[in-house]
Amino acid sequence: MTKPHDDPAYPVRQSDEEWRRQLDPTQYAVARHAATERAFTGLYWNHWEPGVYRCVGCQEPLFASDTKFDAGCGWPSYWQPIDPARIERLEDRSHGMVRVEVRCARCGSHLGHVFDDGPAPTGERFCINSAAIHFGTDSDTAR
């Protein structure tokens, strides 16, 4: 089931104008309108430094570098989030497919999709747009 990115259930909310001021055009298209960057073009698809990947919209820590793996798909891929409660899963029936969209549970920003073809121990592959995340070398996983 889909819901609008500005649903009042999200704790962090801004007007469309505020999102446009905060995010660059690519980040805005991805995070607020569920666009997808082209494979092998994003900043983090081949990035391997230790640290934390945070939501571009609200800075929520979402993925740790030690769960990142090379899925060969051209997007940053992780086998689990830092905390499953920080990721919202929604059914996505766009483009003639049925997939599971993942969003930041705090601000509703579109991150990418999750698939069941990842490595152990979860078997999941969180396929995330680089434009939806920021990287930091800090190990802080709290807001």
TrEMBL record:
Reaction catalyzed: L-methionyl-[protein] + [thioredoxin]-disulfide + H2O = L-methionyl-(R)-S-oxide-[protein] + [thioredoxin]-dithiol
Keywords from the named record: Metal-binding, Oxidoreductase, Zinc
Name of the molecule in the record: Peptide methionine sulfoxide reductase MsrB
GO MF term (any one)? peptide-methionine (R)-S-oxide reductase activity
Q: Which cofactor does it need?
A: Zn(2+)
- Which residues make up the binding site for Zn(2+)? 55, 58, 104, 107
The record ties this protein, via InterPro entries, to: Met_Sox_Rdtase_MsrB, Met_Sox_Rdtase_MsrB_dom, Mss4-like_sf
Annotated catalytic residues: 127 (nucleophile)
What's a single GO BP term from this record? response to oxidative stress
Cofactor comment: Binds 1 zinc ion per subunit. The zinc ion is important for the structural integrity of the protein.
PROSITE patterns for this protein: MSRB
GO cellular component terms, A-Z: cytoplasm
Its EC number is: 1.8.4.12
Task: Give the record's family classification.
Answer: Belongs to the MsrB Met sulfoxide reductase family.
MsrB domain residues: 16-138
